Amino acid sequence: MKIIARDIPPRTVWALEQAGVHPLLARLFAARGVRGKDELDDGLARLLLPDTLRGTREAAVLLADAIAQDKRLCIVADYDCDGATACAVGVRGLRLLGAKHVSYLVPDRVVDGYGLTPPIAERVANAGADMLITVDNGIASVEGVAAAKARGLQVLVTDHHLPGPELPLADVMVNPNQPGCDFESKSIAGVGVMFYVLLALRSELRTRGVFDTATQPKLDALLPLVALGTVADVVKLDANNRRLVAQGLRRIRAGAMPAGVAALFKAAGRTASAATTFDFGFALGPRINAAGRLADMTLGIECLLTDDAGRADELARMLDGINRERRDIEGGMRDQALLLAESLFAADGEGVDAPPPAISVFGADFHEGVVGIVASRIKDRFHRPTFVFAASAAPGKEQELKGSGRSIPGFHLRDALDLVAKRHPGVLLRFGGHAMAAGCTVAREHFPVFERALAQVAGEWLAEAALTRQIETDGPIAREYMRIDLVDTLHREVWGQGFAPPTFSEEVEVVSQRLVGEKHLALKLKHQGQPIDAIWFSHTEPLPPRVKLAFRLDADEWQGVRRLRFLVEGAEV
After folding, report:
1. Within 10 Å of residue 169's Cβ, how many Cβ atoms?
2. String of DSSP letters for 402-436
3. pTM exceeds 0.90
4. Torsion over CA of 240, 245, 246 and 247, rounded to 10 degrees?
């Protein structure tokens, strides 16, 4: 592992400080590409305009006509947190704007697979809907959209995934990544796309005189859900996404949130009044995702839709229980997958066992709902693009393997799958995704071909330097900033994918170290001559007496007393 300090432009730091930004935050923001204080303005007025997102005007007209004609609308959602929040935003928002008949349907991960398929379209039509609206899916659903249209349904696709070679023939498509769209935030999540459609619809209804600026519904009540889905989907937090998240956090901290969000904070043992992006990514998001992985995402969506606090608490407790089960399953799968991955190692030029350029593993007992999480763990451990496969549990598809992949910087996973598909026609039955995360289905007999083909692409695309894990940090931290109040200041900011949380690096003295819970390393350090506690989660290897660490600042509470500590992210070796 190599620890690298980010470039921190001194003139930008000075300019931010002169504009009133705290000196530590000025340094952190400048290192992340912020050039002026105006970029830190998270007001709603600074959001990108809905008209710049291609398809929103047409979607607004389509939906406004449907509301006026009292049509029955059905939302088809994805089964992850982004899909669940997008569905809840769509249902709540459309009802706020006057739609009387709004239902939803979420595919079953095992039985239905991903996205709008022809059978899903049939179910929507048979339920009596007039219009089908996709959220967080649909851009690749060529056959599903065609089936819906054949049954006489109007189809509105709202999605953010990358399109394939053929686009579906929907009535309207809203996706920042579709050809011809100039929307600046290409990384907006599916829930953000649906929120923008609602903004455009409200504008259209104002134009039609349904209400005016004084009487129009306040869609900002949906922002806590938009923030949660945006962070949980690990999309890049560009300026627009950061504003959406900041607005959602502000409302949650003030107590203005759906009952289900409040219940999830309670079930996770987190404090809503001090909500952070870490709560979204590591507490609430996983509990909602667990429903789609092991049970039925309807539980997650209902939790986000209910206004009954008692019902919300009940559903949140159920989601918490499912998430505990998910962690148990994941632990066993992770251990087995690690052994399978290590069996792929080969001696490098210096006689040291090293992983291949890409890792693909399959376990006969793996659960397909957890393969993505395990792939992420393997990727983090070995710093290689990783796919983990499980046998499909869908009736009649037992010979199909469903895989989920996670990547490393410099390796576009969906493009890699596309190349594998071109080189080995018929091996990939289905695939799709993003640069850093993707999914695919292969026949069990073709798994060895896929494994070799992906490793070959990785070997061609990834230079040796890219195969060495690097941690970007903000360099040393001055003693004057080692304060609990500054930990709270840092936590209140919006951090995440593409706008990394503050991580510092320095050489420290290791005074003592011991294992906690058999899998975490508890440390007592000397940092700049002063004692400080630290914890390295999921790490058991001992450290030398002096070592360069990458760490984040955290507050540990014991018997009502809060103390500063380091959360270790890595060590340079």
Report:
1. 11
2. EEEEE--TT--HHHHHHHHHHHSTTTEEEEEE-SS
3. yes
4. 90
The encoded tokens of residue 270 equal: 């987190």
Average pLDDT over residues 171-199: 97
Look at residue 425 and give its three-state secondary structure: coil
Question: Could you tell me the two tokens for 507?
Answer: 């050489």
Question: 160 with 151: CB under 8 angstroms?
Answer: no
Token look-up 């959209």 returns: 145
Do residues 30 and 52 make contact, with C-beta atoms less than 8 angstroms apart? Answer: no
Q: How far apart are CA 397 and CA 390, in angstroms?
A: 12
Alpha helix locations (H) across 97-222? Answer: 118-126, 142-150, 190-207
How far is 253 from 273, CA to CA, in rounded Å? 4
Closest CA to 107 of 97, 99, 117: 117
Q: Strands 73-76, 102-105: parallel, antiparallel or unpaired by DSSP?
A: parallel
Instruction: Quick: pLDDT tens for 310-329.
Output: 999 999 999 999 999 999 99
- Region for 30 from its dihedrals, namely left if φ exceeds 0, alpha if ψ lies in -120 to 50, beta otherwise: alpha
Q: Rounded CA gap, 219 and 92, in Å? A: 9
Residue 297 CB-density burial (10 A; 0-12 exposed, 13-18 middle, 19+ buried): buried
pLDDT at 113: 84
Per DSSP, 271 falls in state: -
The answer to whether 123 touches 117, Cβ cutoff 8 Å, is no
C-alpha 218/C-alpha 213 separation (Å) is 10
Tell me the backbone φ, ψ of residue 536, rounded to 5 degrees: -120, 100
Amino acid at 55: G
With beta carbons less than 8 A apart as the criterion, state whether 109 and 368 touch: yes
Q: Cα(427)–Cα(425) distance, rounded to whole angstroms? A: 6
Distance of CA 469 to the CA centre of its chain: 21
SS3 430: strand
| Distance (Å) of CA 479 to CA 52, 65, 488, 506 | 46, 61, 16, 12
